[in-house]
Amino acid sequence: MDKTVLLLSVFSCLSPALEALDNGLALTPTMGWLHWERFMCNIDCDNDPDNCISERLYMQMADVMVKEGWKEAGYEYVCIDDCWPSHQRDAQGRLQADPKRFPGGIKKLADYVHSKGLKLGIYADVGENTCARYPGSLGYYEIDAQTFADWDVDLLKFDGCFLNWTLLGEGYINMSKALNKTGKSIVYSCEWPLYEWSFHQPNYTAIRETCNHWRNHNDVSDSWDSIKSILEWTASHQDIIVPSAGPGGWNDPDMLVIGNFGLSHDQQESQMALWAIMAAPLFMSNDLRDICPRSKALLQNKHIIKINQDPLGKQGYRTAKMNHFEVWEKPLSNNSLAVAVMNLQDTGGPRKFPIVIVPGWKVCDPKCNITQILPQYKEMGVQTIQSDIVFSVNPTGTTLLTITPIKGNNRHFHKLLWKNASVKRDPINTL
Ligand SMILES: *[C@@H]1O[C@H](CO)[C@@H](O)[C@H](O)[C@H]1NC(C)=O
Ligand SMILES: *[C@@H]1O[C@H](CO)[C@@H](O)[C@H](O)[C@H]1NC(C)=O
Ligand SMILES: *[C@@H]1O[C@H](CO)[C@@H](O)[C@H](O)[C@H]1NC(C)=O
Ligand SMILES: *[C@@H]1O[C@H](CO)[C@@H](O)[C@H](O)[C@H]1NC(C)=O
Ligand SMILES: *[C@@H]1O[C@H](CO)[C@@H](O)[C@H](O)[C@H]1NC(C)=O
Ligand SMILES: *[C@@H]1O[C@H](CO)[C@@H](O)[C@H](O)[C@H]1NC(C)=O
Ligand SMILES: *[C@@H]1O[C@H](CO)[C@@H](O)[C@H](O)[C@H]1NC(C)=O
Fold first, then answer.
1. Catalytic residues
2. Is the CB of 209 under 6 A from ligand 1?
3. For 159-193, how does the pLDDT look when each residue is reduced to its tens digit (9 = 90+)?
4. How far, in Å, is the centroid of ligand 1 from the Cα of 205?
5. Which class would CATH give 316-418?
6. Which residues contact 48 (CB under 8 A, 6 or more apart)?
7. What pTM does this model have?
8. Angstrom distance (rounded) from CA 238 to CA 14
9. CATH superfamily entry for domain 31-308
10. Among 48, 142, 351, 355, which lies 20 to 30 A Cα-Cα from 67?
11. Could you tell me which of 161, 167, 145, 43 has the C-alpha nearest to residue 95?
């Protein structure tokens, strides 16, 4: 065994990976479409048949996902959120879909989605009611898990409304066991920490053992303020939440709202870049039947998706913050690094950012290969630590790069860089 291998194995003994839920799923962040942010609880199919929560909506999305390259780009799960069920369970105590809006039932919808080579996600709640006051699963975990398995559903988003927080852990764990007991592999998307944070710090070891991804913070809305607040929350809790992410389990900062109404194109690029850096599940909530080509190209950008889906499965950290710039860095396989430089100043024009300020820039000693992914794809080629590169970053926009060291480098830079994520750089006032 050479010295390098020894050092690496000592390091991995010192920081054992937390155990993931053992269902073989979500080895990279889940990708798909989820109705909530865009379509909410619109049940008015008489007056708004194209946008109401009905089987037609998911069938149309599935059709478009195949036809317009979404499936090919990696978006696989077509997911139902709240407001799908009938207000009454059936005579056997099972949930049933609203008969008027889902005349074929969920099994038939799952068959349709599967016939397109896609997967179907459904929604339920750990408590007495769902957030929109449809029947909750409390007291019915095994029946509901079996119902979803019988319907051939592939993912469950399990919300946390209407349950005393002291029972959240028990409820989420019981449902995880009930899903396992069905014998069908179902991605388990939780909101356990989101509902627990207001009372105390959640146990991320237990959460990672129980769920495939978990929401930590408020619902996203179609606004830059919402995106900024999710990023700020994530960065300010990164030492607690980032170590819990990895193949099989992910922190979920909520849906991509790209392609809607509230974000400028620069802001859409920032959301896409930072969701990739955070190794976030990529659930779009938009109308794929009517989306502008620029948003579509951004959501389907294979270089960004590759960063998100990198098999190493490390979530990135915010590594520097100065003069309304933030630098976020995500280790990639093969010792590469993805770097996002976000300009949070929302007045004025583009601002200059010299690459030497990026903490991970030391990987360029002696040489590295830099590729700019956003705002435009540009191979910048071989650089050294002396290279004088200055980016121009638009207000509320992001420059996204990958940096690959060229041999001769310190092969342990990830270890050095990530040993203490809370190290913040001093503000640099020379920009
Ligand atoms: C259920 O859990 C066991 C043990 O953790 C695991 O080996 C098995 O694959 C799981 N089954 C499903 C369907 O998730
Ligand atoms: C939640 O449960 C705890 C422990 O059983 C109890 O003390 C508390 O009153 C409950 N809270 C509410 C709002 O019911
Ligand atoms: C979870 O399951 C245990 C064991 O069956 C049971 O005692 C407990 O009440 C359940 N908790 C909830 C919230 O369903
Ligand atoms: C957190 O959960 C893990 C796994 O379930 C458990 O072993 C550990 O004791 C818990 N930690 C705390 C502080 O409760
Ligand atoms: C890592 O490098 C090897 C050898 O060059 C290559 O085959 C592999 O695809 C790379 N892995 C990733 C995730 O890029
Ligand atoms: C640098 O990266 C680009 C994009 O991945 C690649 O096409 C190019 O061959 C690389 N150059 C070197 C010298 O590794
Ligand atoms: C990490 O860095 C922070 C800030 O400099 C420091 O307070 C903390 O003690 C460091 N932790 C470790 C484990 O070195």
1. 159, 219
2. no
3. 999 999 999 999 999 999 999 999 999 999 999 99
4. 18
5. mainly beta
6. 42
7. 0.92
8. 20
9. Aldolase class I (3.20.20.70)
10. 48
11. 145
